[in-house]
Design a protein that fits this description.
Length: 504
C-alpha cells in the first residue's frame, strides 16, 4: 500500500474513532440532558400527556389544566387573569416557568419523588395519574381587594405593590404588584403567539412582569422611622421622652435644611422639644433627623439589620429552602469619603431617604414584628401539598420564627406609637371599626423632578390584642396624597383579611 493510501486510512480510522467516542459521550453523559431538553419534542408531548395539578386558594383553583385533545394534550389556564399572576407565575411551552409554577413544578407535574407510588401504579393500570395540588396561604378576599384597590387607586399611581401577612404565622394573605399581566397568552400552545406576548410584556417600560412586592427596593420615607424609634427605645429614650425638633434643622456640615412635610408639624424654632410619641404620630422629620444623628450610624444600621435589612437569602414559598427570591433591603452609606460618619447622610437616612431602600415585604415584616410582640415569623406562600386524589397531604406548613428584632416591651411601646399615628396622626385612613389598627405613613422623594412615593406599613389587632394582619402598601411616584391613599388601601386589605380569616 502506497503512502497516500496509508495516510487516508489513518485519517479515516481517526474520524471513526472520534465518531465512536462522541457516540459514547452522548450515550453515557449527555443522554439525560438531551432527553429532558425543552427542544425535545417527544419530551414535550410526554409532559403534556399528564394533567398538571391545581394551584388553589381557599378551595378555588386559580391555575388548572384543560384537555385540548391536541398533540400537547393539556393546556394551562388561569381563570383569574391578572389578579394572581405574580404569585402563580406561568408554565409556558418553550420558555422558562415562573412563580409557584416553577417552585412546585415537579409536584404539580407528578414527577416528584413524593408521588412515585402514583407512577408505579400507573405502570400497571396504564393510566396517567395527574399531578399533585398546591394550596396557597392567600386570602381570596384580601387578594381581590389588594388588586382592585391598587388598580383603582385615587391618586392615579401606575406602579406599586401591596403585601399582607399574618403576624402570628407568617402566612402571606395577599401579594399584588401593579401593573400586572395576563398569563394566559404566555402559555398558548401556539408558541409563536406566546413568544410575541412575552416579548411585548418584557419590552413594556412599566415592567408588568416584575414582582414589585418582593423585588422592588425604593426609599421608604418615614416608615423607616419605626426602625429608628426601636433603636431609640433600646437606648434609654422612652415614648414620652422629649427629643429636639422644630420646624427646620440643618445637620452639621450640611447646608441643606431638613423640614417637616407641613408647617403645622412640630412647629417652633430649631430644638423645640417633642415627645417620641408625638414625633411618630405626626411624622416629625426634624425630630427623627436629630435623633438619628444622636444614636449614631452603627445603632441605626444594627437595628435595621435586626429587622431584616441586608438579608440576601430570604425566599417566600414553602417554609424550607427555596422559594420566590426577595431582594435585600439596604440602609446604604452614611459615611464621608474618609470613612467617618456623615451627619447629613445619617440625618437623611433616619427619615428613610439618602440610600435607604426597602421592599414592600420588608415593610410588612416590620409591622408584623411590632404586632407580634417582637417576634418576626418566616413568611410563606405554600400552605399544603395534596395528592392528585386529595387524600394524602405531603406537606403542611408549620410556622416558625425567623428572628426577634425587638423585645416584647419595645414592641409594646412601638404599637402604642403606631396606634396613635392611625388614631390621631397621618395614618387615619387605615382605621377599621372594631379593631385596633396601628401604622406609619411614608413619603419618599423619588428624584428632583418626579413625584414622591407613597408608603404605609401597619397592622390590625382584635379587641383582645391578637394580631390578625400586617400590611405594606407602596404607590410609586404617587405624588401628593400618596401616603394617605396607601393607608386607605392598607386598611381595606386588612379588613378583607379579617373577613376571610375563617375560610382559609
Amino acid at each position: 500500500m502506497n503512502a497516500p493510501l496509508r495516510r487516508v486510512g489513518v485519517v479515516v480510522m481517526v474520524l471513526f474513532g472520534l465518531l465512536f467516542a462522541n457516540l459514547n459521550w452522548i450515550q453515557a453523559y449527555k443522554a439525560d440532558e438531551y432527553r429532558n431538553s425543552d427542544y425535545n419534542g417527544r419530551v414535550q408531548v410526554a409532559e403534556y400527556e399528564r394533567k398538571r395539578g391545581n394551584i388553589e386558594v381557599g378551595g378555588t383553583a386559580y391555575a388548572l389544566s384543560k384537555d385540548t385533545g391536541g398533540k400537547l394534550r393539556f393546556q394551562r389556564s388561569y381563570p383569574s387573569g391578572e389578579m394572581y399572576a405574580h404569585v402563580l407565575g406561568y408554565k409556558p411551552v418553550n420558555n422558562a416557568d415562573t412563580g409557584i409554577e416553577r417552585l412546585e413544578n415537579e409536584f404539580l407535574a407528578g414527577t416528584s419523588d413524593q408521588l412515585i407510588a402514583n407512577r408505579v401504579r400507573d405502570m400497571f393500570t396504564g393510566e396517567q395519574t395527574g399531578g399533585g395540588n398546591v394550596l396557597l396561604s392567600l386570602s381570596k378576599r384580601a387578594q381581590e381587594t389588594a388588586f382592585k384597590q391598587l388598580q383603582n387607586n385615587q391618586v392615579g399611581a401606575k406602579r406599586g405593590a401591596a403585601i399582607a401577612i399574618d403576624p402570628r404565622t407568617g402566612a402571606v394573605q395577599a401579594l399584588v404588584s401593579m401593573p400586572s399581566f395576563d398569563p394566559n397568552p404566555l402559555v398558548s400552545h401556539d408558541t409563536g403567539a406566546a413568544a410575541a406576548a412575552f416579548n411585548k410584556l418584557e419590552k413594556d417600560p412599566e415592567r408588568p412582569l416584575a414582582n414589585r412586592a418582593l423585588s422592588e427596593t425604593l426609599p421608604p420615607g418615614s416608615t423607616f422611622k419605626i426602625v429608628v424609634a426601636a433603636a431609640a427605645l433600646e437606648n434609654g429614650i422612652g415614648k414620652q421622652t422629649t427629643i429636639p425638633a422644630g420646624s427646620s434643622w440643618t445637620p452639621p456640615t450640611a447646608g441643606q435644611p431638613i423640614r417637616n412635610a407641613a408647617a403645622s408639624i412640630c412647629p417652633g424654632p430649631t430644638g423645640t422639644p417633642v415627645t417620641l410619641m408625638d414625633a411618630v404620630t405626626y411624622s416629625c422629620n426634624t425630630g427623627f433627623a436629630q435623633l438619628g444623628v444622636r444614636l449614631g450610624a452603627d445603632k441605626v444600621k444594627d437595628k435595621a439589620r435586626q429587622f431584616g435589612f441586608e438579608q440576601e437569602d430570604l425566599t417566600v414559598g414553602q417554609l424550607g429552602e427555596g422559594g420566590l427570591r426577595v431582594a435585600a433591603s439596604r440602609t446604604g452609606d452614611m459615611q464621608n469619603p474618609d470613612g467617618g460618619t456623615d451627619p447629613a447622610a445619617l440625618a437623611q437616612s433616619a427619615i428613610g431617604q439618602n440610600n435607604v431602600r426597602m421592599t414592600p415585604l420588608q415593610g410588612a415584616l416590620i409591622a408584623a414584628s411590632v404586632a407580634n410582640d417582637g417576634s418576626q415569623m418566616r413568611p410563606y406562600l405554600v400552605k399544603q401539598l395534596l395528592a392528585p386524589d386529595r387524600t394524602t397531604s405531603y406537606y403542611t406548613a408549620k410556622p416558625r420564627e425567623l428572628r426577634r428584632p425587638v423585645s416584647s416591651q419595645v414592641a409594646s411601646d412601638l404599637r402604642d406609637m403606631m396606634v396613635s399615628a392611625v388614631k390621631n396622626g397621618t395614618g387615619r385612613k387605615a382605621a377599621i371599626d372594631g379593631y385596633i389598627v396601628g401604622g406609619k405613613t411614608g413619603t419618599a422623594q423619588s428624584g428632583p423632578n418626579t413625584p414622591d412615593h407613597g408608603w404605609f406599613i401597619g397592622f390590625a389587632m382584635d379587641k383582645n390584642g391578637t394580631p390578625v394582619s400586617a400590611v405594606c402598601v407602596e404607590l410609586e411616584q404617587a405624588g401628593s396624597g400618596g401616603s394617605a391613599e396607601a393607608a386607605r388601601i392598607a386598611g381595606r386589605i386588612m379588613a378583607a383579611a379579617i373577613a376571610d380569616s375563617g375560610s382559609r
